[in-house]
Sequence to fold (380 residues):
Amino acid sequence: MTASDSSAPEPVLILGGGLMGLAIAHQLARRGTAVTVLSRRRSEAAGFVAAGMLAPHAEGLSGDLLTLGQISLGRVPSWVAQIEADSGLPCGLRSTGIVVPFRSAEARDHYPTAPFGEALNRNQLEQEIPGLAPQWRAGLLFSQDGQIDNRRQLMRALESACVDRGVHFQEGVEVQALLHSHGRLNGAQTCDSEGTVSVLQCSRAILCSGAWSAQLLPELPVFPVKGQMLSLQTPRGALRRVIFGPGTYFVPREDGLVVVGATSEPEARFSEGLTPHGQKTLNEGITALLPDAENWPPMERWWGFRPCTPDEGPLLGASPIAGLWLACGHHRNGVLMAGATSELIADLASGAEPRSDLAGLLPSFRWDRFQAVKTGGSHS
Ligand SMILES: Cc1cc2nc3c(=O)[nH]c(=O)nc-3n(C[C@H](O)[C@H](O)[C@H](O)COP(=O)(O)OP(=O)(O)OC[C@H]3O[C@@H](n4cnc5c(N)ncnc54)[C@H](O)[C@@H]3O)c2cc1C
Fold:
């Protein structure tokens, strides 16, 4: 048992040191709040897996999810500037724009976010993406969407910014249980890599354990959607834009590395590793979109788990336990939404007034918004 040091301010506990955990810890520390991050395994975080597209429009989001994505996209430059200033490291933000190809102009015009993009015909598509396979006859260019090199730069910069701002890390520490009485949080039971079990007292914590969040709070409808990825090396500048095709995308980094993703495998649950079927799916996607890329040398292959919810929107704000805040379930748009989520949750947990546009979205992202559906028996 670990008693809290009565002379130091009680820290806010961050349960999970992935993308959301680091982003929220950083924002809290910037607000002068003491923070401790409890992190089971740094390398399993989807933050180190993602392609890093900042793509509310290319993803075809709608409703309040689109609004949240757009707010977060607008916040990205200042958010990244804070991280870069605190860490002294670049985050790899690039405004490459994203092109979405379609088989027909009709399909293009029916895309949910078509009004936000520039319509392209086949000739214009070829100018944007030389070598695009011939079946793609129309496109949308979202020049406001972009990308960030989460895997090689953003995560490392966030960690460094947190350390610089005095965030305390406990790496290799698993949170085993949340402790509460009369509906109010009072601690977390943890286990370190040597098997030592401790109790950390706390009255405020953020649940941001990614795809594993429901293991700590089973009421949460969060489940894993596995994704497999690979990267290819191209001559620098071979691809100018991100290409977001159905089922497959290409994300060109500054140095010529192209990230290709991603499978979407809810049935895999938490099964680890690459699979022949997953790799075949990626290869078929490459051929269908950009046949020239079959000749680009593969560099690396990896996988991870998206934290999904039944409506693919995050769970944000209050939880069933007072003092415990939620920042989980960002599914395939967590990198995009980290800027807005970290600001909102850091404000809530530090007692500050959140920005009204973000606060206004909280009802749409309550953790219990699915309950009516569940009791109606049509939950899938
Ligand atoms: C293949 C793939 C491609 C993606 N591409 C994009 C993209 O292009 N754009 C985009 O915006 N998003 C993308 N995403 C989504 C994005 O990566 C996630 O939404 C985001 O990383 C979620 O952040 P998180 O902090 O909730 O979870 P994670 O980053 O997964 O972090 C969770 C952390 O919690 C820790 N943890 C879990 N349980 C415990 C416990 N009991 N105790 C202590 N620690 C614990 C884990 O070890 C992990 O480090 C992609 C995801 C995948 C998998």
